[in-house]
């Protein structure tokens, strides 16, 4: 059994308690993990605060921070395969996806490495004589970061990269479901040479570790990715110290296909959009909204593609869909499919757990036309697509916006003016036109409403990890007159 440690104040430690991690492809225990509780969280936050104000990090220039980030990026690239195998083993995300994604994670660190010495303050043309006024950008402070199990190296990179570029220190909480890749990543942070306490990486359970971290009085900002229900706890805890929050939450993203679209191409994007990562993707295009005249044709293409998907061991390069990350998740998906079928949704394909070991679930398509199916409103976070059809563009837009979420969306059409109308009309943080699931360190990402607030990626994300200080300097050598002497 592999044994992992966490990383606090530059040291690798066993933790207050231990828990076991399960391989979702087999259902067997495969690794032994450290579990942080309140005193470990306290230790990690104190280390981060000490590093911020008293350690060498406080004197590190922005250019040096950039160099450390470049080194970290190179180490991530060099160790991508090892990290990918650990993530695949611990979460069941297929190796084909983890290896490509982690190689790209290195580019996120490179982007923020380059940005570190471009975070500038400003000089203000103040309306008073003999006075210089500047805005100084400082690191916001100690940041708490919490991530869910899927894509932990990616979801932490979009927080750690900009926070380090801005000069912050941090405590990162890996998910209790599959923490191995992030705990291993701590070794690369160490090797890159970041001073002790700048990046601390722990894991533990939400109500004990996560909650203790979120309400710690020295935490000034919380960067959270996870579900809306957990986000409510996070926001309540943040209220204790009035810490700011950025929230990247779930989605029920619409995928709109018009009759004039290239149906084969749209079908490839739809199948990847819902079944990649076994559907455990915040941007999963989980609501197909298809023009009625092509509904049958489109459904028959995606049904054929869904049924041809190779399901298997996530460690095999040929596998296209692996297991769900946990038994809890597999049960949730199965229960929601059953509830949807009872409400009148028709199974086009799939709908069942796979027999045998591991937490597998068939790629599933539910035809929900004419029914009020819970599958249209609730996030599965699994390989289930719900389908409805429309006659007019206005109807398509209404269906797309008929959700409390607002993370991502896709529009497939050859009609340019229609694409522009929908880009403006869709209420979601990302609109992909004739493509789906594209991301980049250069492009901001984030949601509306129940999908969260704040943006990750791009320059603005680094600025969000800074606070401004206004500095006034009087440039006159004349004495300041006594204000109580009448002139
Ligand atoms: P989750 O909300 O259960 O857990 C996320 C993290 O929060 C975990 O590390 C967990 O331990 C921690 N946590 C739990 N309770 C806490 C508390 N009281 N205080 C602080 N932290 C606490 O999420 P999950 O079920 O692991 O992941 C699935 C969810 O994440 C889905 O809703 C999915 O859409 C969302 N997600 C969003 C994005 C995005 O970028 N928008 C990306 C991936 C996943």
What does this structure look like?
The protein is an alpha/beta fold. It folds into 2 domains: 2-249 and 447-472, Aldehyde Dehydrogenase, Chain A, domain 1 (3-Layer(aba) Sandwich); 254-433, 3-Layer(aba) Sandwich (Aldehyde Dehydrogenase, Chain A, domain 2), CATH 3.40.309. 38% of the residues lie in helices and 21% in strands. It has 14 helices and 21 strands. The protein has helices spanning 38-53, 62-78, 80-91, 95-115, 152-166, 180-192, 206-214, 228-241, 263-275, 292-307, 327-342, 393-400, 416-425, 458-463; strands at residues 2-3, 6-8, 11-13, 17-23, 28-35, 122-124, 131-139, 142-146, 169-174, 199-203, 221-225, 244-248, 254-257, 287-291, 346-349, 364-367, 384-390, 410-412, 432-433, 452-453, 466-474. The strands form 5 sheets. The chain has a 7-stranded mixed β-sheet, sandwiched between helices. β13 (254-257), α9 (263-275) and β14 form a beta-alpha-beta unit. α2 (62-78) runs antiparallel to α4 (95-115) and α3 (80-91) packs antiparallel against α6 (180-192). The longest helix has 21 residues, at 95-115. The N and C termini lie far apart (84 Å). The protein binds nicotinamide-adenine-dinucleotide. Residues 146-150, 155, 173, 175-176, 206-207, 210-211, 214, 225-227, 230, 233-234, 248-251, 282, 379, 381, 407, 447, 452 line the site of nicotinamide-adenine-dinucleotide.
């Amino acid at each position: 059994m592999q044994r992992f440690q966490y990383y606090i104040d530059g040291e690798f430690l066993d933790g207050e308690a231990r828990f076991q991690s399960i391989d979702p492809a087999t259902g067997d225990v495969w690794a032994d993990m450290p579990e942080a509780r309140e005193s470990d969280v306290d230790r990690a936050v104190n280390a981060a605060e000490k590093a911020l104000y008293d350690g060498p990090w406080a004197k590190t220039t922005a250019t040096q921070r950039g160099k450390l980030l470049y080194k970290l990026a190179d180490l991530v690239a060099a160790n991508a395969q090892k990290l990918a195998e650990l993530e695949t083993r611990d979460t069941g995300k297929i190796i084909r996806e983890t290896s490509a994604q982690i190689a790209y994670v290195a580019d996120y660190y490179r982007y923020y490495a380059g940005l570190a010495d471009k975070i500038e303050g400003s000089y203000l043309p103040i309306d008073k004589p003999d006075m210089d006024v500047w805005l100084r950008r400082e690191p916001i402070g100690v940041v708490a970061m919490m991530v869910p199990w899927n894509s932990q190296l990616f979801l932490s990179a979009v927080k750690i990269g900009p926070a380090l570029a801005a000069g912050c220190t941090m405590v990162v909480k890996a998910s209790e479901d599959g923490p191995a890749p992030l705990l291993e990543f701590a070794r690369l942070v160490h090797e890159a040479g970041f001073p002790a306490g700048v990046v601390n990486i722990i894991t533990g359970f939400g109500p004990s570790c996560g909650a203790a971290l979120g309400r710690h009085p020295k935490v000034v900002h919380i960067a959270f990715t996870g579900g809306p229900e957990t986000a409510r706890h996070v926001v309540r805890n943040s209220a204790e110290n009035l810490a700011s929050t950025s929230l990247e939450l779930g989605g029920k993203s619409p995928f709109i296909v018009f009759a004039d679209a290239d149906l084969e191409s749209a079908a490839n994007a739809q199948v990847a959009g819902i079944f990649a990562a076994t559907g455990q993707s915040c941007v999963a295009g989980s609501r197909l909204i298809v023009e009625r005249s092509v509904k049958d044709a489109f459904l028959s293409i995606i049904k054929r593609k869904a049924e041809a998907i190779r399901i298997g061991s996530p460690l095999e390069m040929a596998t296209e869909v692996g297991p769900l990350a946990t038994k809890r998740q597999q049960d949730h998906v199965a229960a929601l499919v059953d509830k949807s079928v009872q409400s009148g949704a028709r199974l086009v394909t799939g709908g069942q757990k796979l027999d045998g070991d591991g937490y597998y679930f068939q790629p599933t398509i539910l035809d929900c036309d004419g029914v009020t199916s819970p599958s249209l409103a609730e996030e599965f976070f699994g390989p289930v697509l719900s389908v409805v059809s429309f006659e007019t563009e206005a109807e398509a837009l209404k269906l797309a916006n008929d959700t409390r979420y607002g993370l991502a969306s896709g529009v497939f059409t050859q009609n340019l003016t229609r694409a522009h109308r929908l880009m403006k009309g869709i209420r979601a943080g990302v609109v992909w036109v004739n493509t789906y699931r594209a991301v980049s360190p250069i492009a901001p990402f984030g949601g509306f409403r129940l999908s969260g607030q704040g943006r990750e990626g791009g320059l603005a994300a680094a600025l969000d990890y800074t606070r401004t200080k206004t500095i006034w300097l009087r440039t006159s050598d004349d004495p300041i007159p006594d204000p109580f002497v009448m002139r």
